[in-house]
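Intended use. Records like the one below are meant for learning the mapping from a protein sequence to its folded structure. Do not use them to infer anything beyond what is encoded.
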Amino acid sequence: MRRRRATYSLAVLLMGATAIAALLIDWQIQSDLHSVLETGATILAATVGALGLVRYHARRQLPYLILGVGFLGTAFLDGYHGLVTGSWFHEFWPTPPASMAPWSWYAPQAFMAVVTLAFWQSWDWDDSDQGVDEWMVYAGVGALTAASFLFFAFVPLPRAYYPELAVGRPQELVLAVLFLVALVGLIRTRLWQTSVFHHWIVVSLILAVGAQVTMALSYGLFDVPFHAAHLLRVISYCLVLHGFLVDLFYLHKTAEADANRAELARAAADAAHAAAEGRALELAASEARYRAFVEGAAVALWDEDLTGVKQRLDRIQAGGVADLKSYLFSSPDLVSDLAREIKVHAISQETLRMYGASSQDELFMEMDRVFGPDYKATFVDELLAIASDATSHESEALTHTLEGRPVWVSKRVRFIPEPDGLRGVMSLTDVSSIKAAEEQLRARTGELARSNAELDDFAYIASHDLKEPLRGISNFAHFLLEDHGGQLDQDAVEKVEMLIRISGRMERQIQSLLEYSRVTRSEPRRDPVPVSDVVTEVLESLQSHPELAKTEVRIASDLPVVRADRELTSRIFSNLITNAIKYNDKTERCIEVGWFDEGVGHADVDSTRPPVFFVRDNGIGIREKHIESVFRIFKRLHGRDQFGGGAGAGLTIVKKIVEAQEGRVWVESELGQGTTFYFTVGGRVPISATAPPVGAAGV
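Structure written out for the chain above:
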């Protein structure tokens, strides 16, 4: 492909260089050179025409006939042009060359332009001359040749040269455009990519365009552009000749290969015929053994002839039905007819046992009861599989025994094409117990969901209602100390202060429980959330934290946009960053907020999931035995007053928020070195500004 494009580029360069050289060189060349060029062009055109007819009769394709006859006509017109302008024959022509030569050149070029356009268009008509009489082409091209000759030889024509214009012979540009149209048309067919002949035709047309453009630059007979145009035309004929010779060579090689393959095919056919005669009895015995196997199989098997069904479906589709599925669902009588088209050759004894039938005849008489209305959708899907030439079809269907007991079956049909039709082997597996278990599981899942919802409602109501009396206890304890503290001994004061502390701690736990229960009380939103903005807002809200000023916070510059709940996502980052600040005893504290693509940088990540965010610190870390318990509510790994206290519900709330947005959260930590929390939320929103992430890119 590259070589062919390079060839076209060289042809364009040759065309341009010839035109430029013709403009720059001011020579006057003898007319004898022109006669030599015309003689060569005539011989080449006649040779190409003869080869075109040979190629046509080798494999009858209309374009080659048009091109071959066209080149013969061009050879006649080129010969006429050579006689008119040749110095050897001046004394035989009453009209001087100054008038005859330009227009006699124009005749074969105009004729060839029409032929190349017809050659291009004929590839769209047909790959053969079907419907086109060969003699019609001969007659049409011959008439066009004669008309061209008579018109340019005897009809008075205007002057050929216009020295007052930018180009001396502007009429040549018309033919350049026609050749260019044929060139573009052939390039668009893409035949040049696979056919060496079309490749050389494209190159020759490039030079033909160049010849016409160069001739347009001529301002007098036998000047440099005049002879350069003739030379380009001769080269273009040579390229077509080369294309025909190479094409005929490949055609000969292909014919040899076809002959060898045909001989091998005949030998294989003879061997197959001999083997077929010997296998006929074996096939009959095999069929008998197969029927016996089906009938005696321990599973429910059906051996069916689906030929009639396949033929009717093919006729329906050939009749113009585009949406076969809708057509079948809207035609219940047709579906019933197609079911009756199925011919059952044999069924297994297990099938009879499954449906409570004593014989095949009894089962066949009650088919409408066994495969009732609930089976229709499944059967339509099977019909669609047959129509689409599928190799198999699997589905589940509700059937009934002869006594009316429902039987859920898993059905698998294997379609086996045969020379005279289509065969189907259907197996039915009783999955009623599995269906019953699935139904029980769905019921229990629903009950569990209702129980969890009721538990969330209880936690929300209880935590909300408990806050008020607890706040009253705390307030009255404060009033007791303020109003009667002087009347209480030291032991009583300490007990009241302990009551205040305990009630405060309990109020914080109730508040955490209330926040925990609120997470799933409403459906999380699914909006585009720029995580970078969320993290910035969280850090702004934590500016009052006394330890934030001592902490270096590094944020990835390319945090992606995810489809999630902005408020809930903000709470995740707020809780994790707050914990990273609190649980840090280092002099130089560092927090890192970043992300990576699923499957990149972490071995435990499913590559089909959303991006993974992380919050990493260099704090106190977590012991390995406590890793699994950090997300338990009210679970603290330190004393109540260590590291600023807290209710011990922050990570539990984070976990519930993440799971409410169909994500997951996990932790990696090393005691004394730091902790990293990973989590996913929602799905990534692709934006052009997001750089390809690798690891924690941009941190």
